[in-house]
Structure prediction request, 127 residues.
Amino acid sequence: MTMEYLTRRVVMYPHLNSAGKLFGGQALSWIDEEAAIFAAYEMGTTLIVTKMMSAVEFSSPGNLGDILSIGTKIVHSGKTSLTVACEIRNLTTDTQVVNVDEIVFVAIDKKGAPTPHKRWIDANEAN
Prediction:
């Protein structure tokens, strides 16, 4: 599956760290939000939690005024989980800002217990 870039952001003053670059925590917040929205749509439920993020690799800075694009793709689908990759690309400089190879989301029921999600159910009903 190829990376889908559905969201764009402009780096503004509130997003900067003390060095005047995109704050890493802001980038991670955008990644978690974008990947969660993507996973919720793919899993057919908004009752999901972020279970794990693999290593986060910052490749280049985001500067004030840069236009960034956030991409996501499915890495693996399990019975109750979906693993997503996510990256932020700088459209102004045509470089990768940050990459996360794996973010694992788990579908939960109203009591907080893991539950099968729509993508897994649909795939297994065909069998």
